[in-house]
């Protein structure tokens, strides 16, 4: 088994055809496969071997799926990193994963040089393009002249394929270990939900460093179709692409739906080709769903997934009627139930923690056996999400057990931001939490108790945070209190802070 085999089998099944359009040029599936295999040759020449962890950090482009395929083909392990992360965040992932090689693009090379400086055992930064940064290797011409490799390293279903770092509630992100079996199972299960012609047209706008984007990479390789992609989501470019490329299907996060709904010139674009939009990565309000359907005259369906379960857990089949408030039913091969606090399964309609098991459940957390034991109990992955399942198997997510912020579909660890803010000498106590937001579904708020005699400002807090975390994680709302609400054990009650919060607080001083 090797997840790279999915694209090889699809090539045999579909034959050569124009499969991808990117930035003004068409590519056939055979042309792309040759490029992917040439990159594998280059990586092998740079001493990448089975089991090695290789960081891939780039904006969405054709080189990302090429890197994924090439690394998997060699039996090495893909470590995707969001390009928005700042150097300290990148450094932690590189060090924790033990990666010795990074594949990136010229504009990100300086950040990677900073992030990897002095890491024991780190060997090389491979760049798709010319970079003036010392120590970086431009592999673009080397790949173009390399002979495509024709071998594919055989892997076992439980061999590690991808190491995805996901934010938790305890500070540093945890490495989710996804195997070749995990990926293959999840992709094939999702693919079985749809009966699509080979020439259906799709648009890729999701970050390929996220499990949702990774799923779509392999799904496209397996199912064929004709696809285009954007380097990053831009509402105007997305509307233009839907019109020009005649996009029929795409996957978006709720924040993107909001941007497209509110685009000031939306009506000037012909989006009549759009048939189905799949939403995920964050809760989708019924108001946003129905408004998008009305304005774009298409079907919008919700889904539910988790990095620890490879990606997809529930979905709607094309023939399913939409059930308001539901994220669909469990996909094939996924067994889903609701459990109480004693880990006992509950009957339909009763609320508890959503738990799943199946071939899509992760191997565990990288170098963190304790967290793995807490997450997987008697074979069941405990998602940390609260919900219920009805008699027809439709799943409803009602709350989150974990103290996680989900902003624009991205998981953000409150603890990580709190640890940064606590470094300010003027801060006595700090609590970071999510609050409602029309655009991102959740925004980041921090409540601070200053030390006696100190008066830090909101701008000071944000400037400090910007030194250590990506812009996306900087708190939008900074509130100052005389004291924070706590329970009898002295634990800060973030639920109370969320309940008391409003955009125009009355009780609290803000800047």
Report the CATH topology name of the domain at 1-155: Rossmann fold
Gyration radius, rounded: 23 Å
Which geometry do the CA atoms define?
A: globular
- Amount of helix: 25-40%
The total of beta strands comes to: 29
Structural class: alpha/beta
Q: Major beta sheet, specifics?
A: 7 strands, mixed
Strand content: 25-35%
- Tally of contiguous helical segments: 15
What is the CATH first-level class name of the domain at 1-155? Alpha Beta
Query: How would you write the strand order of the largest sheet?
Result: 2-1-11-10-12-13-14
What value does the average pLDDT take? 91
**Distance N terminus to C terminus?**
56 Å
- Stretches where pLDDT falls below 50 for ≥5 residues? 505-511
CATH architecture heading of the domain at 1-155 = 3-Layer(aba) Sandwich
Provide an overview of this structure.
By secondary structure, the protein is of the alpha/beta class. Among the domains are: 1-155, Rossmann fold, CATH 3.40.50; 413-510, GMP Synthetase, Chain A, domain 3 (2-Layer Sandwich), CATH 3.30.300.30. Helix content is 29%, strand content 26%. A seven-stranded mixed sheet has the order 2-1-11-10-12-13-14, with helices on both faces. A five-stranded parallel sheet has the order 4-3-5-6-7, with helices on both faces. Strands 18, 19, 21, 22 and 23 form a five-stranded antiparallel sheet that branches. The longest helix has 17 residues, at 29-45. The model is unreliable at 505-511 (pLDDT under 50).
